[in-house]
């Protein structure tokens, strides 16, 4: 009984967090503009009550009773992991003082506004004082959390538990060493044709095609919906209600096409969690600081990347579905065949903007930002020197000159809102996606034939079995170890990119 | 300081209630069907936390301190009224035992399902046992709340404080005595032409026209939005976010036309509340049992009825706006002029269904239901005798034969969900609307000229001044007394209907 009572208490915490997420979804999709301020208060109240409930004596009492009653279960049983996740979250919340949390919230409002203005006017120097405060606060958060080697490790633990400056240095070193020669080889080749991607693609038809593919992948619309936002995202309020958004560019088809299927990958993760974990600490729908401790942001990103890149950008996918895309856009694609379309949506084209980057160059944007964060937190890089550092890296990695800070260091919102430590998740997602996908097709002989004929169930079942169903029960590396026999390993990713671009650009 | 601390605590309660309303709006407009059950849990958690917070020792402490610090203010000052509203809500919650509340929630689920089935199959006898339980529980609620004369008075106090069996008997007597002869006189006249209302009216154009009129009335879309639902409603999450919904019938124009402007009336009330009352006990956005004690459901309905009937069904409105309706539906309305349209949307046509009733016969549907509720609670009417009683009243009041219970006693969802005591609000809304509107045009000489030329600001300012801005500070009769010099008075309503239908049907 006592474990059930503990879960009941955590169900209240989950309801509060999911309600806050619901209010946040509405704020980004439906809410009239004039309600911004009061909505912020409502969300803050729900988050405060979630925190108060989590840290209450009642929770502690039930937690201790649950711990006693589950002591004979395996360490990695769902019960004991739910308990240890909760203990971890409580400890973390207790380590970060209320006033520090309040300072962060207060700073976020003003620094984001300063960033919006500074970006519009291309005046980095106006944003710099705010960024200095953001960095100083992040350092204090790191000190509160604690770390062994590097303060940045503490911030990483909030998003990608287990990852450190040392492990990332090693990962990035290996990626640079293999991807830079590959990129140079691609750049030496003539560009593939892609002009037709910029024709006029009416939004409704884009939506219909994207949604049809999302459903083919297994996205269940009885428990989901697709909306339109400037910044696409996936969000869930339990596995029973998992929503995605996308952005339609009428004159650039890939934006919504791959955006929708990227978010579908996230959504399949949420919809695939064991129903028994709903409203428990093992559910994956715990926003904010409650998300740490279990599975990582990188693990979540691995699912979106897997569906976006390994499936939706594959030759098999377009060989099969291109006729139906042509049916949706008959005049726009009249002069393009499946092979040309597949090449176009996989073209490599180094650019200044992260969110527009192709699969080959995306990680360079990430490594640049992660290393800057690391050095800012370490104090070996000063905010004022950021543009210089940024521009030098863009030149050395991608060979690009950055004409102004709007297209450079001011392009992302993350730092202005106090998010430091979370860029690396994207690259870890790429690496993990390749590692899982390789093992998947090697392990289950029905997966690749399924993909070839448009039956996505075998892949989905494999991912549900190995990743989705577990929710936050296992860590990222535990999942990888069980599924692939190895912890995070960049070799399958390097292998995948090398093979892909060697074929596409007919490299030696 | 202590009053501010009390308000801070009540702000948390308001945030929880508004969040619950937000989740409820989403459930009725956007939510995927598969999320029904878990959404119910989330809303229940928020409502429970609101109640727990309201009844907490902390609230009591702050309430007592606030009371001490405001003792020298006037009894009807905002501060003292906020305090007394809170005391009333606390007392009420304490009087209704938890287990009774839980029994009601549990019964609601099963009885609503039984009603849906019984209605579909036209088997009142299958619903009767559930209705008996609903009535028995309502009696227990009435006993818990307490009353002086009649148990039904206790239930009325939840929705229309101050109203009693005695006062309603008197009101209904006066309405019947004057409206039945008027109705008979109308029925003796030939019907006006209205066939053109059933032509094909595309939804988008209906929406555009309705929204344009709503904005003309003063509905502020920076703090609102209009959506489409089967059952139209208005809901707010503070005055900064006041949403309405409507229902489009492609082959019956009045449904969305007047539905939208009805909900607009509700929305103007919410948007007009003093901003200083936001997140306080004087805000009007407190759903469920927190809504009692201040202004009444009838007062809210008076604003929707005023805009729907006194404005949007008026001759002045159609003389002015009919050309723009014709511009929206040129072929559909080619052979109809403004006068004919005005007559058609005001035609009297006794029917079996309350929600389709015209302005003249609507109150008969309400009086019938209210009197049945009263007698059920008193025990002078048994559930099994309900159809007979219903059908006899439809015959004597409206001269109609009820062919089956689907079109009779089974038509409304209210009783199946345990709502008893709330039908009378509609008629009180009608009465109050006429009383306020009469005084408005008599008091402010700029109102009628404004209405004639499409300037709705003078009316809105008058209603804001006399009603909206006060939120829940004054009772319905206090508002009426200040505005009109009288408490609720049916004479202006009778006068209005008599004048209107005498003209429309050219009665003697």
TrEMBL record, chains A, B:
Superkingdom of the organism of origin: Bacteria
Keyword list, A-Z: Carboxypeptidase, Hydrolase, Metal-binding, Metalloprotease, Protease
Keyword Cell membrane: no
Enzyme class (EC, first level): hydrolase
Any GO molecular function: carboxypeptidase activity
Catalytic activity: Release of a C-terminal amino acid with broad specificity, except for -Pro
SUPFAM superfamilies: Metalloproteases ('zincins'), catalytic domain
The family this protein is said to belong to: Belongs to the peptidase M32 family.
Functional summary from the UniProt entry: Broad specificity carboxypetidase that releases amino acids sequentially from the C-terminus, including neutral, aromatic, polar and basic residues.
Protein known as: Metal-dependent carboxypeptidase
Natural source organism: Granulicella cerasi
Top-level taxonomy: Bacteria, Pseudomonadati, Acidobacteriota, Terriglobia, Terriglobales
